[in-house]
Amino acid sequence: MSKNVLALGLDPAFADLSEFPELTPDLVRAFIDAQLDRLRGLGYEVESCLVDAGETAEAVVARQLQRQGFDCVMIGAELRAPSLLLLFEKIINLIHEHVPDARICFNASPADTAEAVRRWI
Predict the structure, then answer these.
(1) Average pLDDT, stretch 82-102?
(2) pLDDT digits (tens, 9 = 90+) for 42-57
(3) Which alpha helices (DSSP H) does 8-120 contain, by range?
């Protein structure tokens, strides 16, 4: 039986890429999509949920969590940035409220998303 994973992250359109001038939001999004496809190739059912830096993020995450149950919620590194601490706390509490049995995991970058999920399910 496949496991359901929700991959939460900051939409690259809202990410601060100033330290990485070679990156564009489209390039980052393509990389994220490739990593989620890798998870699917490993047999996981994956839903992606990319949010803004706070204006609609909570509502978007809540709707996604209410749509179905998840075995694991992977939270991307950008959502854990110090500048987004309050949003991160709100997201953790939404996960706790809507899918209390789900495992929570964190990646360091999109490149280790599969490893983060595999640690817990």
Answers:
(1) 97
(2) 999 999 999 999 999 9
(3) 25-41, 57-67, 85-98, 113-120
Residue scoring higher pLDDT (117 or 77): 117
The Cα-based distances of 86 to 61, 90, 114, 120 in angstroms read 14, 6, 26, 25
- The Cα–Cα gap between 9 and 113 comes to 11
Instruction: Tokens for 60, please give them.
Output: 């978007």
Helix 25-41 × helix 113-120 angle, to 10°: 40
pLDDT bracket for residue 10 (50, 70, 90): very high
Residue 79 DSSP class: G
Classify residue 60 by burial, with Cβ atoms within 10 Å: 0-12, 13-18, 19+: middle
Cα–Cα distance for residue pair 34/52, rounded to 1 Å: 21
